[in-house]
Write a structure and sequence with these properties.
Cobalt-precorrin-4 Transmethylase, domain 1; five-stranded parallel beta sheet; Diphthine methyl ester synthase (chains A, B); homodimer; diphthine methyl ester synthase activity (chains A, B); S-adenosyl-L-methionine (chains A, B); methyltransferase (chains A, B); 4pyrrol_Mease (chains A, B); five-stranded mixed beta sheet; 2 domains; 293 residues; 17% strand; alpha/beta
Chain lengths: 293, 293
């Protein structure tokens, strides 16, 4: 059996009791470690589970799935995923390959950022599609998120923006020379995300594409850090304000919610508690959001 | 401290290790039992937790929150919620009241249907806003879901439809006479949901509102039963086909996903495995969905 086990969002005790029983009994345990991370190390997990955990990087999952699925017709293999097992596309691939090999599959769901984001006080019903933000380079600034956010904002919905992480990446030079030397991990911050969003808005405006724009420096948003963990932190404010709040938010992982105009007053009351500056918040709330259903 | 503890979706072992520790130590434990249910009884939970669990019905949460929050400044109160604690609006209310009383709050996230629905193979990124479907009566057929689905479909996204449950409801007669006698619980099925969706589409057409309609008998959808549980079951097909599949789907809880035209081929391959009739599926997929980005 192939077990896909969600680990939740924060530490070793966020696994479900059901999940833990599976991990303790399985023949092999893999930890998917490139689409998200827990806030604790592999050694902490190994100690807690009382057994070895094999790190499954992108290479192993995408090219070495035979190894992961080896003999899973006869023995139990646990594939651990931070958050919920179906949060990322990659694992659907793995399941399709297991199906082809007649391997039975069982899933143990867990908290995902896509539902835990409700801890901001914003209603899950008022979210549109989720988008991802990748690290821009000087020459590569993919902006497909912009049209998705436009679609959400046209109908007044919030947008959850998931932020890039770079784990076990090679520099171009090392890649070109085939050297398996990896850069230190990088986790995008709320400040980087807000800046990139504003950069794209500026570029689109110059191109004349989005005459009215999709959002602006004064759009209200919530910066989120370590959602679901003991040190969870939210800071709400304008996108411009959130460009400068990384220190207050603290370490990874971060995510961001851009609020839609359909925000209910109860949601606003809740989120206002986290405001960088309540006066600025109230002014913009009254001007751009309140009653704009 | 007020702890909001998510229980996940299926049975007593879906609680997280962190959640279980809190439940075992808390002074009082409440189980919110009217917006969703686990697939096991209160007695199973009590045995598993080794302690008493107080059922919190709508009346208690909405009018008796003082009782729930009583002395939570000094002792630990655990409020258990099926799924994730922030899935339903009610709990935001409770948190706001706790905040007013200076009660510290801590949340233990867990799987929610809003992320576990990824088990259908449909990508969470391709979902628009979630809608709810309530039981229609002869005189009350609320159709606000229809406009929300239209918004999702206009941009090609999937819609998760959450289905009504009626727990501890009084008949009109008993309510009028002030008799606290409750009807047996009712859980909406995929078939009832699909029928009600088609009924509203018909009414809207007759009213001439949605000239093109929002969906039809031949729209593709996935019927879902007991998502995240051991007896989880998916059946995919047209809305018309899904009107008749309740027996195959089995007991509660049910939910339904109406697919958007932006469905990726990988998603379709996955969902097709659950098709009532693969030939019908393929015909409609090719005609109405494939390549319609």
């Amino acid at each position: 059996m192939l077990y896909l086990v969600g680990l939740g969002l924060s530490d070793e005790t966020d696994i479900t009791v059901k999940g833990l029983e599976i991990v303790r009994k399985a023949s092999r345990v893999y930890l998917e470690a490139y689409t998200s991370i827990l806030l604790v190390d592999k050694v902490v997990l190994e100690k807690y589970y009382g057994r070895e955990v094999i790190i499954a990087d992108r290479e192993l999952v995408e090219s070495g799935s035979d190894e992961i699925l080896n003999n899973a017709q006869n023995v139990d293999v646990a594939f651990l995923v931070v958050g919920d097992p179906f949060g990322a596309t990659t694992h659907t691939d793995l399941v399709l390959r297991a199906r082809d090999l007649q391997i039975p599959i069982s899933t143990v769901p867990n908290a995902s950022i896509m539902s835990a984001i409700g801890a901001t006080g914003l209603q899950l019903y008022n979210f549109g599609q989720t988008v991802s933000m990748v690290f821009f380079t000087d020459t590569w600034k993919p902006a497909s998120f912009y049209d998705r956010i436009r679609e959400n904002r046209d109908i007044g919905l919030h947008t959850l923006v998931l932020l890039d992480i770079k784990v076990k990446e090679q520099s171009l030079e090392n890649m070109a020379r085939g050297r398996k030397i990896y850069e230190p991990p990088r986790y995008m911050t709320v400040g980087q995300c807000a800046s990139q969003m504003l950069e794209i808005e500026q570029i689109k405006k110059e191109e004349g594409e989005g005459k009215d724009g999709v959002y602006s420096e004064e759009s209200l948003a919530v910066g989120c850090a370590r959602v679901g963990g003991k040190t969870e932190k939210f800071i709400s404010g304008t996108l411009k304000q959130l460009c400068k709040m990384d220190e207050e938010l603290g370490g990874p992982l971060h995510s961001l919610v851009l609020m839609g105009r359909r925000t209910h007053e109860l949601e606003s009351d809740y989120v206002r508690e986290f405001a960088v500056d309540k006066q600025v918040w109230d002014t913009i709330w009254k001007r751009d959001y309140e009653g704009k259903q």
